[in-house]
Amino acid sequence: MGTEVHDSIGGSILEEVRSRFHRSRPTPFGVDHALKVAGKVERLLTEPEYESMNPTDVLCARAAALLHDIGFSELRDDWSPACEEHVDVGAEVTCEILGRVPTFSTDSQLIARVAHLVRRHESTAYSYPWASLGGQPVQKRDPAQERDDLALALLKEADGLSHISGDLVEIQSEKWLDEGVPRVPSSSPLTTWMWGESVVGNLRLLGKRAVVDARSTSGTQEALEGYRDLERLVRYHCSLADSLYEAEACTPDWREQSLERGGGEKPGLKIHRFHPWRSLEERLRSCYLLHDRSIHPYRHARIRTQLVDIDDLSPLALYVVKRRLDEVLELHDVLMSQYCLGLWDLPGLVEYSYRLPDEQLLAPPVLERYTETAWDGHPLVIGLMDGLHRCWQARSLGLAKVRAVVITEVPYPPLPLPTSWGEVCVVEKPPEKSKRRNLRYKREEDYPASFKTTTRITKENVEYFLYRDLSSIGSRGPRGRRPFADDNAG
Q1: Which of 1, 151, 288, 422 could bridge to 61 as Cys pair (CB 3.0-4.6 Å)?
Q2: Helix, strand, or coil here: 13?
Q3: Span 271-473: which CATH code?
Q4: Can you identify the CATH homologous superfamily of domain 3-247?
């Protein structure tokens, strides 16, 4: 298609877009936004990543840039808070408009192609959890279905970059505040795994969406710079809310390494639901000792989430399994590749599926801060109760901090004695039981007389009696399942 034909078609579409939004209620995603996305499409078309696009796809991408948010011209009060209705409505309106535009009006396949782009342009944003849906995503995106669609990639990249630049960021922030979204979460600082939980979380998700949808080298750099600009806004909103600002342990800059290790985006991971901090805390308070369900060690404890220095942690086991470390790294890489979410920034409980058909649970590492009476001087230690492999892998990658659950004022000590990182060995398979950890109590008579239990301590359960059953938050426990079907280690 020549430039003259393109300009004629674009003018006809733009005239329809202006007319539609002129009759509709005000929206930040109207004519100005359409023009901004269309401008970014034109710029990105000069990038080498899109030079192989055929003329038909270029034409459809240009049309979709102007029409991608046309559904908002039909905005209704009964739409959901996520406004996911706008993509299907937009596809219908697109078909109607293009039916009156020369070139498109005589080719139903062209119209269907543009409608598809309009319907799918939000697939990344809608694949994250949404507070309005109880932590479920609107759509479960499969990158494999989009990988070879350059027109869709172009539209999504242009739209993602448009959302993180200019006045639109401030407009969106004010809109969220007007809708009752708090500046910061009430219970978990800087949650960034779920749309609608806080303004600061939404700002970070805008940046993450732009990074994930950036296909070109220049667009990726623009998205990363946009994330850093948004982070300054995050800090500003934290100050307005008198809330502690914390940077993410694993920022989007880490995504490039994940893509390099994985050879590009890996399909297959689906986030099914995100349970925010309050839900995770409730589950922790309800957990019990493995061999005495009447004892709830965390029921009256102090539980909080925070960034912790990995080097300050004391492992409670003497080994990590190489294969499990590889699994952790793979899970982190696919999270970063597909969602730009860091495994070490998890502030709640996530239900997901990957490789195995059934859903799995993942919580942050669980730590207990307590006085270690078995050591001289009775120092305070931070025992790593759950998440040893994740913390080891984070440390090996050079991360200094991870987000974790920190529990204090627990009336029952951990059964294993704490150790140091230098004493933990990487092994191919778990060693014999006597070499897995240093136990505090090895015999029934070693337990203090003051220890009250409704279950008799025997030689069969003595080694795991004080073990916290964390299966309700996804811990596999001493004999739990592995996340990979062919993994029988451990």
Answers
A1: 151
A2: helix
A3: 3.90.1530.10
A4: 3'5'-cyclic nucleotide phosphodiesterase, catalytic domain (1.10.1300.10)
What is the pLDDT at residue 110?
96
> CB under 8 Å to 456, separation ≥6 — which residues?
none
Look up tokens 């009752």; give the residue. Answer: 180
Question: d(Cα 55, Cα 59) in Å, to the nearest integer?
Answer: 6
Euclidean distance between the first and final Cα of the chain, in Å?
61
Q: Which of 319, 345, 344 lies closest to 490 in space, CA to CA?
A: 319
Report CA Rg, the chain.
26
Is the pLDDT at 1 greater than 50? The verdict is: no
Write the burial class of residue 290 (CB in 10 Å: 0-12 exposed, 13-18 middle, 19+ buried): buried
By the 8 A CB rule, do 470 and 477 touch?
yes
Q: What is the DSSP string of 89-138?
A: HHHHHHHHHHTTSTTTTT-HHHHHHHHHHHHHTTTTGGGSEEGGGTTEES
| In 128-254, alpha helices (H) | 143-146, 150-163, 167-178, 199-213, 217-240
* Confidence grade of residue 477 (pLDDT, cut at 50, 70, 90): low
CA distance 319 to 312: 18
Q: How many CA atoms lie within 13 A of 171 on its CB side?
A: 14
pLDDT in tens, 76-115: 999 998 999 999 999 999 999 999 998 899 999 999 999 9
pLDDT tens by residue, 170-181 = 999 999 999 999
Q: CA of 403: how far to CAs of 192, 246, 250, 337, in Å?
A: 12, 10, 10, 20
Place of tokens 């409608």: 115
User: How many Cβ atoms sit within 10 Å of the Cβ of residue 435?
Assistant: 12
As given in the structure block, the two tokens for residue 309 are 């220095």
Q: How far apart are CA 97 and CA 73, in angstroms?
A: 13
Domain ranges of the chain: 3-247, 271-473
Is-contact 397 410, C-beta < 8 A?
no
Tell me what pLDDT residue 3 has. 39
- Mean pLDDT, range 430-454, rounded to an integer: 88
How far apart CA 405 and CA 70 sit, in angstroms, is 44
Q: What is the mean pLDDT of the chain?
A: 90
